[in-house]
Structures are given as C-alpha cells and as structure tokens.
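Quick review question:
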C-alpha cells in the first residue's frame, strides 16, 4: 500500500492531508484520484508528484510502504 501525502492546495482539494492507497502504478493513482475527487483532478496535472522523493513516470509501480507526495505549484517571490 502506498502512503500518499497532500500538501497545501492539494490537501485542500483532496479533503485530507494523508491517506493509504492500493493502486498498482502512479498512473492508476492519478486516474483514481481524478475520478474520486474532481477538484483535485483539476490541479493534479500541474502538481509535482514524487514517489520515494523522486519524480517518476506514470508507469512506476507503487509497491508496499512507498511514499507518494503530491505538491501543488507554489508561487515564489
């Protein structure tokens, strides 16, 4: 099971800051989150999604005890 953490606006749109998910790949996770939480799906394409602290593609397997961080775009200044 993957532990998914949401930050800032992603947490707001997800309605939580953390949850455990069972999807097999990052792409499956993105698809499920978009279907379950349309507001999150609206910003998800612009978010940095890190698996184990690294940017990876959607074919990456989400094994047991993996950490996924969903970071929305941040304004700097």
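Suggested answer, residue by residue:
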């Amino acid at each position: 099971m993957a532990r998914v953490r949401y930050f800032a606006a992603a947490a707001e749109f997800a309605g939580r800051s953390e949850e455990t998910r069972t999807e097999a790949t990052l792409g499956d996770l993105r698809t499920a989150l978009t279907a379950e939480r349309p507001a999150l799906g609206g910003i998800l394409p612009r978010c940095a999604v890190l698996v184990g602290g690294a940017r990876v593609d959607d074919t990456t397997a989400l094994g047991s005890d993996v950490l996924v961080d969903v970071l929305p775009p941040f304004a700097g200044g």
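Why it works: The chain has a mean pLDDT of 94. Residues 21 and 27 are 13 Å apart (CA to CA).
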